[in-house]
Amino acid sequence: MSTEAARDWTRQREGGNRFSLHLIRAIARHGGRAAGRACLYPITAYFLLRRAPERAASRSYLWRVLGRPARLRDIARHIHTFACTILDRVFMLSGQMQRFDIRTSGLDGLHTQLDRGQGVLVFGSHLGSFDALRVLAATRPDVQVRVVLDKGHNPAMTQLLDALNPELARTVIDAGQDGPSIVLAIKQATDAGALVALLVDRARPGEPSLPAPLLGARAPFPVAPWLIAGALKVPVVLAFGLYRGGNRYDLDFEVFSEGLSITRHNRGSQLADLVARYAQRLEHHARRAPFNWFNFYDFWQSDDPHAQSVGRHDPAPHARSEPPARVERPERVEGPGVAPPADAGAGPAAVAGAARAGLRR
User: Ranges of Basic and acidic residues compositional bias (predicted)?
Assistant: First the structure.
């Protein structure tokens, strides 16, 4: 895989074809969760032995978060943790939340924001399982949960999950549509008091993003979600659903803002502050559950070529005593619809443009 492709998560091929995914679904639904979990070991072995880009990304990340060279068994554990959460999606999206021991914290703060009746944006990440949010259906059946995702990305998995719960699939806000339609759909949902959930950690080269420190180096984060939150002025709550082994998840909610206000003249610095604050919370939870990181690509978009060759060639763990070099980047990374002059406003056109570029995940 080229360096450019390693940095762009949208160019990674799907891990498995439709037949294998439907086979796992059949085993999980008819054989039970125990039978499904037994299938995860050969799946883990396949990714560990055959998927060099994912192995490289795992090794690079684990080096950062563990503070030492990652061993092969660390990478295997990392991939297996991811596989466990994918299997559990089959049951969660089928409405079988009773199978899981989900321990929540921060619910009071979330309920307070929901009780204001203006809707809430819930920002998640590819750290742990975002599907653990489904537990809210039991605690707040009066609140509809709408999820923003790009149906065109990873179509085999999308079709599989849509088949599990057609009613839920109809509530998805498709991030593959044009920017104005995305923003309008989110606004309509929050105006109706819904909880709108979206993943805000991934940015790809060329898209509107800002760099922020994360695990010792700067990583790019999309700005479109923050522009939308600032335009809608609704509460923002962070959510982290961390897998703890077996059937246990820790679901943590943190009120990030009761309503963002992004002014015209300070927009650049305000966005940088928001992204930096978010990155701090993401790092905090990544250190709490290091094997829950499911960004299997060059997340930091490192300019150090050895950072990726570490994973591709799989040297001995003692080959290097330091993690990949820290890469300093400018305070602002420009992209379409993101870096206007300081006196430019965050009007509907700018927000829609940013949404179109930054919410396709």
Answer: 307-334
